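Q: I have two molecules that I believe assemble together. Could you output structure tokens for the complex as a whole instead of separate predictions?
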Amino acid sequence: MTTGRPVLTISGLNVDYGTGPGAVHALRDIDLTLHRGEVLGLAGESGSGKSTLAYAVTRLLSPPGVITGGDVLYQPPQDGAAPVDLLALTPQELRAFRWQELSIVFQGAMNSLNPVHTVHSQLTDVLRAHRPDMKSPERTARAEELLTLVGISRDRLGAFPHQLSGGMRQRVMIAMALALEPEIVIMDEPTTALDVVMQRQILRKLVALREELGFSVVFITHDISLLIEFSDRIAIMYGGRIVEEAGAAEIYRDPRHPYSDGLLHSFPALHGPRRELTGIPGSPPHLTAMPTGCAFHPRCGKAFDPCAEHVPVLAAPDGAADGEDERTVACWLHHAAPAPSAADPAPEPAGDTSPARSG
Amino acid sequence: MTNHDQDPAENGATHGADSSGHSPILSDGDSDIVLEARGVTKHFPVRRTVGDLVGRRHRTVHAVDDVSLRLRRGSVTALVGESGSGKSTVARLLSQLYPLTGGEIRLGGVPVKAGRGRSFRAYVKQVQLIFQDPFASLNPVHTVRYHLTRSLKIHGKQATEAEACELLERVQLLPPLQYLDKFPHELSGGQRQRVAIARALGADPKVLLADEPVSMLDVSIRLGVLNLLRDLKERLHLAILYITHDIASARYFADTTLVMYAGRIVEGGDSETVTQQPAHPYTQLLIASAPDPDRIVDEEDQEETGSGEPPSLISPPEGCRFHPRCPKAMERCRTELPPRFELDDGQWAACWLYEDRPVATTIPGASTTDAGTDAGTDGASTTEVAAK
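A: Yes, here they are, computed for all two components at once.
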């Protein structure tokens, strides 16, 4: 699945909450590439910055969130089309871009439907705004088609959100996100509020639709066992940085970062031997009091000297075989430790002279 | 359901015994059972519409129907179900926050029906509830010290700093003095839940009812809290009811597991047996739906285990409540409610697939046939209390 061309390239993205000396660095030096037709999983605990990343990429970040640096490039599917710099779009361009090329399904999407409008008017609203020359019957037909796509019978089109169950509302949101056949769908914890049975139904539906329509998915969740099952590649975030990125099976079989390993061992298994699990000692750092060096070192059982001083860079592990060039990890266990006098390999974004671009 | 109505006098006697500060312990082999629910039923009235008034209809939500379970000393019982299955209502019924519609709750073998005031306080001294959301269950304007000493004071303990520190040590918040004067907002989610557990332990309870205690916590610290609860179970011989939607954590943490669907318990037994050889089609669906990284390979050739959504509890389906979603539903399932059929190793399932197996009679409330024996033991235990 990773054979597709890059469709979204994020490089060196930095996001702060607030400005000046009191600013909190929510995202630091995020490099991430989404390929066409791929499901990219983004895992992390609360406060790791995974939702901030989704908001920054879609330019939905509201103040005090500020993008202080980096690039987000979207590559349109047409051959020879120039990449679009998402962070430089004007409000008008942005309005045309959203839904058309990139859509997002929010956390708790069940509650993002307007309670006083029918499903019909909310689904056709997207079409009315983006396809003004579409006739009303055509819009209705498309809305019916979308509902059928996500497994809801078309006679529910006239229903109000409160007449639908949570799972159906969630599927309406997914239908709406697919209305204009976007290239990228970002899903921010789309099934966290749902039961496991409904969660599996929706995700199966999504994977089937992805194969049918060929869009790419960024799937954000804290449930790494779910990601391993449903995504092609996984990026694990901790303390505002990506600490490891690799194929789903590779993460599962052979996690390189101690945090990935701890996260995988935080979920009791349904099958196999029953073993004692410990989770990860301590609790996730607060963004206002981020540890120096590797943010994970106070909780890490394998921490050694350089961890507390130097921020590890996200790069292919040392001695990686040729077949492993796809995976990266940010941990001194897998990189040559810096000389004691070496400068911090990842300079702080503070003092960035470029004007801050707000989301 | 009738034996609950006939014993107001007995309840009076029970309150007398309870509020005097000691609980009667039965001398027979079942003395390990601390808290027991027998055929517990809870229906919530639905707000009546004009149509209901004209048609003289009284609609109710059948939130919990005929639930029987036993919590034993030093053991964890998991109650697993989807949202809306009634599992939290069971916790609230067991903690006497709601009055029962039918059935009875027995504490130490004695039927109890706590009202408000003194009898309620005597009950909660023994049965403590831990809530899902540690961000909402602690008062933001009070310190940890206040929360703990208040719990100690209410339940008649010495509310000294040493006592509060001991509680914090029990929940592994070390060193305790560092946490005593913190406000809830200064603590992380896991630490807050530990304070909530410490506060519950302040009453020195026999039973902890934990309603989704870790579902609001970060994944990396959930296991720490579960391991703490298990440690407390072993050291203090607590009976713990662990309510969860995550059947994998029930396998990890609980000794016995009960599976609830649409207000009824459909399967029960040893956790390992229930998760490895699920008998009821609903349990099978639940396990097939749980995220499982090992499944990557055989995702394609998986058999369809059913789909759909839980039914409305205002007019639940006739017969087995799972039959509209069940891939193995038979004609009988649509009309007749399946009793509990005994399987091997203490496992049982309420499903007609197992009708060749004997009907479970050891669990009271499962069928009406053992009402006679119930009444007999009722009489015996109550007289014993009255004599005290």
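A: One point stands out. Residues 219-236 of chain B form the longest helix (18 residues).
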